[in-house]
Structure formats: structure tokens, C-alpha cells
């Protein structure tokens, strides 16, 4: 009886071991799988670049994006038709819903490419953006290689990334008729910028920049100051910026920055002003032009020459009238003080008067505005 039980046990163990060996032999391995050719371009053909922002980068830039914070289709359409290469819709620091953003992109899919700064590197955030039509993805506060890889994963289709093919108005409506097909050419056309805003991000920047699929690193001027405790012009701050640009340059990708840094070497892509700043800038220029005409040929009857201060005043109003980015305001004050040095006494007085008004209207930034203006030789009282 014992021998019989032992025989049954041996047979059972043998069957179990055999099944285990068969399973091990038959187990599927994703790592060794060869990706198919279904989405490859035909031999001898390359994907056409239908994304105007990507095309501008390939041409060497500058690629310039306008910033939209208000989810209003009419405002968005005005910005999209203003000459920018893409429109940076703000979804990190605004309470806009994806439904509203989708409506803006559907209403005016061009000529500027739809783009967005998402809140973080997340499947839901990035796939909402891409499925709704975004062709430029900006991911903020990237601190590590792992976080950067997540951004790549959710931005790109396989085999580069892990983006799901789930439809949406982007593939079906906005980009439904692109040459070569949306799915086949997406990976060649999408633009992915990763923002380096923290000390950890700067430390990892050189490795982040090497990840396949990263189009460019954005040197986040405001938050690099926020996280470092230094500002533009400080040696410590400028060393952080230099590290980001070096990382991009060594990896052969693009370095991006605010538009006021267009005169700095190594940058090829830029974020321009908000719709609010553009409205203020345009209104200020229009009003100044009317006042100049009134004084020279209209009811003023004085024959006064046109003011040299118009553009300077318009820029001050745009950047400091309602401050979105402090550094943009400070740069405008610095530029105004420099330009005022070669103006007539009356125009210089106008600039000084406007700066004094901005000091009064912005108590939190008043001391810094006064310091910059006085240091530039402008009398602000």
C-alpha cells in the first residue's frame, strides 16, 4: 500500500514538473518580441513633417510659442493666427477643463500648432492632450530620468513609447488627413519639451537630455530662481542655466527659454507672452500712436514730433501692468531704463512716470522695480 502511494506521488510530481517545464518553455517574452512593420513608412519614404512647430525646429528655429491662459475660443483663435509657431495653453497653473481646451483646438487648429503645458508627467494628462490634438507637449518640474521617461512613454506611440491608440478629435479631426497617416507619422512630428525647474532636475539634466524622444529642455527661468534662491545675473543662477543648456547641446537636442532670452546663445525655442500681455501691449501702442498723431496733426495743433517712447511704454504696460512672470517685468524695466538714456527729455520723463505708476500698482515688486530703474539711470523719485 505504501509502495502504491509512493508511485502515485512520483507520477504526480513528474506530471507537475513536466507541466512546469512546458510552461517555462512556452512562456511569452515581450523583451524578445520583434516589433512589426504595420506602422512603418514604405521603403525609401520618410515621414512628412506636418507639424509647423517641429518643422521650424528642424530648420534651426527660432520656434516661438504664444501663451494662452484663458479658455476662450475667440481669444485662442486670435493668438493662433498671430504668427506664433505653436500656442502654449496653460494647464499647470490654471483651472481650465480639458473640455474647454479641446473646444479651442477644434475651433482653430491652426495656423499655429496646438500645444499645452500639462500639470505633470502622467498618462491621463498627456493622453488627454494628445488625443484632443496637441502636437507640442510641455512637461513641468521634471526632476529625474524616471520622470522624463514617463513623459516620453505617454507622448509617443510604440515602439518608442506606450501611448494608447484611443482616438479622439486629434487623430480623427484635427490631424485626420495628414500625409502618411496620423499613427504612422506621429512619432516623427510630436514635440516634447521637458522643463528643468528644480535643483534635482539640473543635477539629472545631462541624463534626461539623452533619453530618445526628448525634443528639448526648457530652462525654467522663474522656478529655477524659486528653487535656488538666486535670480538672473547672479553667478549661481547663471551656472544653473548654463548646465541646462550644456546638457541639451551635448545631447544634440534643443534648449528653450522665455522669449526675452532670444539674444542668448544656444537657445532655439521660446515661450512668448500671454494673451493678456499682448492685449495690454497692443492697446498701449495704439493709444500712444493716437496721442502722437493728435499732438502733431490733430486737435493738439502743436506740431510735436512723434514720441520715441511708445514701444517702451507698451512693453512696460504689457509685462508689469498685471504681472504674470516677475522676471519678464524686471526685464521690461531694465530695457526701458536703458532705452530712456537716449530719448528726449520729455520722452524720458514719460518712461519715468510710467515706472512710478507701476511701482505704486505692484507693492510686492516695488522695491525691485525701483532698484532696477534707478540702477539704469532712470529717475523714479
CATH domain class name of the largest domain: Alpha Beta
Q: Could you state the CATH homologous superfamily of the largest domain?
A: Phosphoenolpyruvate-binding domains
Number of domains: 2
Structural class: alpha/beta
Biggest sheet: strands side by side, in what order? 1-2-3-4-5-6-7-8
Question: How does this structure look, described?
Answer:
Strands 1-2-3-4-5-6-7-8 form an 8-stranded parallel beta barrel, surrounded by 7 helices. The chain folds into 2 domains: 52-265, TIM Barrel (Alpha-Beta Barrel); 276-375, no CATH class. Helix 5 links the parallel strand 3 and strand 4 (136-139). Helices cover 52% and strands 11% of the residues. It is globular and about 85 Å long. It has 381 residues and is α/β, with parallel strands linked by helices. The chain has helices spanning 2-26, 52-58, 73-80, 98-107, 123-132, 145-155, 169-174, 182-189, 199-209, 221-228, 235-251, 275-297, 310-320, 326-340, 345-361, 366-375; strands spanning 63-68, 86-90, 113-117, 136-139, 191-196, 216-219, 254-258, 267-274. Helix 15 (345-361) packs antiparallel against helix 16 (366-375). The protein contains 16 helices and 8 strands.
Amino acid at each position: 500500500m505504501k509502495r502504491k502511494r509512493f508511485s502515485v506521488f512520483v507520477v504526480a510530481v513528474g506530471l507537475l514538473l513536466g507541466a512546469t517545464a512546458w510552461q517555462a518553455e512556452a512562456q511569452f517574452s515581450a523583451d524578445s518580441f520583434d516589433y512589426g512593420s504595420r506602422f512603418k513608412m514604405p521603403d525609401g519614404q520618410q515621414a512628412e513633417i506636418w507639424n509647423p512647430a517641429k518643422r521650424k525646429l528642424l530648420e534651426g528655429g527660432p520656434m516661438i510659442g504664444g501663451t494662452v491662459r484663458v479658455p476662450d475660443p475667440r481669444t485662442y483663435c486670435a493668438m493662433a493666427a498671430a504668427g506664433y509657431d505653436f500656442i502654449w495653453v496653460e494647464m499647470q497653473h490654471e483651472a481650465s477643463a480639458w473640455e474647454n481646451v479641446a473646444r479651442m483646438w477644434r475651433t482653430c487648429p491652426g495656423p499655429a500648432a496646438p500645444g499645452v503645458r500639462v500639470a505633470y508627467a502622467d498618462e491621463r494628462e498627456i493622453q488627454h492632450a494628445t488625443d484632443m490634438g496637441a502636437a507640442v507637449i510641455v512637461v513641468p518640474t521634471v526632476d529625474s530620468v524616471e520622470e522624463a521617461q514617463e513623459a516620453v512613454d505617454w507622448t509617443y506611440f510604440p515602439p518608442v513609447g506606450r501611448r494608447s491608440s484611443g482616438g479622439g478629435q486629434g487623430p480623427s479631426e484635427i490631424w485626420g488627413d495628414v500625409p502618411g497617416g496620423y499613427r504612422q507619422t506621429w512619432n516623427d512630428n510630436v514635440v516634447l519639451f521637458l522643463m528643468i525647474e528644480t535643483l534635482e532636475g539640473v543635477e539629472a539634466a545631462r541624463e534626461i537630455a539623452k533619453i530618445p524622444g526628448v525634443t528639448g529642455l526648457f530652462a525654467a527661468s522663474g522656478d529655477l530662481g524659486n528653487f535656488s534662491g538666486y535670480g538672473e545675473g547672479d553667478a549661481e543662477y547663471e551656472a544653473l542655466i548654463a548646465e541646462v543648456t550644456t546638457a541639451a547641446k551635448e545631447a544634440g537636442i534643443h534648449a528653450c527659454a522665455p522669449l526675452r532670452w532670444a539674444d542668448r546663445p544656444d537657445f532655439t525655442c521660446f515661450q512668448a507672452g500671454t494673451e493678456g500681455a499682448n492685449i495690454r501691449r497692443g492697446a498701449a501702442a495704439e493709444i500712444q500712436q493716437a496721442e502722437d498723431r493728435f499732438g502733431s496733426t490733430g486737435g493738439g495743433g502743436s506740431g510735436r514730433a512723434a514720441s520715441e517712447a511708445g514701444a517702451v511704454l507698451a512693453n512696460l504696460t504689457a509685462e508689469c501692468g498685471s504681472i504674470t512672470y516677475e522676471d519678464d517685468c524686471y526685464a521690461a524695466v531694465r530695457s526701458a531704463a536703458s532705452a530712456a538714456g537716449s530719448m528726449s527729455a520729455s520722452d524720458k520723463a514719460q518712461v519715468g512716470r510710467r515706472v512710478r505708476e507701476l511701482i505704486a500698482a505692484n507693492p510686492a515688486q516695488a522695491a525691485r522695480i525701483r532698484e532696477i530703474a534707478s540702477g539704469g539711470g532712470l529717475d523714479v523719485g
